[in-house]
Amino acid sequence: MIFSNPVIPTGKNLPYSTGKVEIGLHYEVPKRNYMSHEEEFWQSVILGERQIERYLLNICYLMGVVAFLIMMLLWVAL
């Protein structure tokens, strides 16, 4: 997308010259940030706006406990 010079509310293109000062000489049109749905989801999780599903955390915790118990049983058996 190609942008032309920005227009100030009076309808004049930037930079607007008053004779001594050029208003808006270094103005840049704000850049758009395009994110996919997945990127928005993970950003909101990192910022704490959303919680990851609680059952997923419980499954990870349970898998860790099971792995620890298996390692302890193998250690005692040897």
Describe the main β-sheet briefly. Answer: 2 strands, antiparallel
- Mean pLDDT, all residues: 79
Radius of gyration: 29 Å
Number of strands: 2
- The strand line-up of the biggest sheet is 1-2
Overall outline: rod-shaped
What ranges have pLDDT less than 50 throughout 5 or more consecutive residues? none
Order of helices and strands: EEHH
Structural class: mainly alpha
Secondary structure tally, helices? 2
- For this structure, the quaternary state is single chain
Query: Approximately how much beta-strand content do the residues carry?
Result: 5-15%
Structure write-up:
With 78 residues, this protein is mostly helical. The protein has a domain at 33-77. Helix content is 44%, strand content 5%. It contains 2 helices and 2 strands, in the order ββαα. The chain has helices at residues 37-46, 54-77, and strands spanning 16-17, 22-23. Strands 1-2 form a two-stranded antiparallel ribbon. A hairpin with a 4-residue loop joins β1 and β2 (22-23). The radius of gyration is 29 Å and the shape is rod-shaped. The mean pLDDT is 79.
Task: Reconstruct the topology from this structure.
Layout: E1 16-17, E2 22-23, H1 37-46, H2 54-77
Antiparallel strand pairs: 1-2
Short description:
The protein is mainly alpha-helical. It contains two helices and two strands; from the N terminus they run ββαα. The protein has a domain at about 35-75.
Give a quick set of tags describing it.
single chain; 78 residues; mainly alpha; two-stranded antiparallel sheet; 2 strands; 44% helix
